[in-house]
Each structure stands twice: as C-alpha cells, then as structure tokens.
Amino acid sequence: MSKIWTPPDPDDWGVVQDIQPSTRVRHLPDGRVMGESRITLTPEAMGELWAGYRCAACLERQDEAFPEFCKAEFCRFPIRAEQQRQMQLDFVGQQPPPLAGFNVEEELDILRQREHRKRPMMTVPKKIK
Ligand SMILES: [Zn+2]
Fold it and tell me: Which residues surround ligand 1, an ion (CB under 5 A)?
C-alpha cells in the first residue's frame, strides 16, 4: 500500500490545497524529463516561498529566510542561490499570469517586511501601553 508523504509538522498539512495535472515538464540535469503538476498553495505558503522561508523545490518550511541549502535531507535545494530563479521559472504557467513589469525584488522586500514576525520574550500588559 502506498502512503502519501505529509510534512513532519502537522500544522503544515493544509499548505497544498489542490494538485492538478499539467502539460509542463522539467528537464533534469541528467537528461531525464519529469512531468510537473500544477499545485495550489495557501496565500501564506506563497508568501513564505517568496520570502525564502519555504523551499521552492520540496515546500519544506525553513528556520531562516533563504538558508544556503534546504533543511530537508532528501532535498538540499540551494535556496540562497537558486530560489528566486526557480520561483520565476515556476510562475511562467501561473493562473492568472504575472503582470508585465512585475518587480520581484520590490515584492520580496514587501513580503519580508510583512511576513517578519517579532517574537518578544515578554509581553507588555495592555494597561501600561
Ligand atoms: Zn527542499
């Protein structure tokens, strides 16, 4: 019996919302051709991808933004070097298509600011704010 792989963190199980067949293929460095599927991710997961907190190759969550390599042992995708290029390739078939003149760098800056979460060690009671 086959088993569908699920992320080790149960909080991460809802990230892929839909998987549909597609006509796109990926040419692997060794010459093999791999069929690709069109997956639908939650908006939060998309933000994490653009902000470098999620691997574009295997979708594993990362502990820091744009680590040198994906932390998943089976993947080790060079996120720091390749993630942005991979994201641009993967969004060629995006529905709807990206806007002409879409500034990826600017968008990444916005996402980094918006997705950054402070995790203070102590909280300030409302009374003294
Ligand atoms: Zn990965």
Answer: 55, 57-58, 60, 70, 72, 75, 77
Residue 115 lies in a domain: yes
Based on the structure, what is the number of domains in the chain? 1
Q: 61 is in which domain, residue-wise?
A: 13-128
Per residue in 22-58, pLDDT (tens digit) is 888 878 888 888 888 888 888 888 889 999 999 998 8
How much distance in Å is there from the Cα of 40 to the middle of ligand 1?
Answer: 17
Q: Please give the model's pTM, rounded to 2 decimal places.
A: 0.59
- E strand or H helix that includes residue 107: helix 104-115
Helix axes 43-50, 104-115, angle to 10 degrees: 110
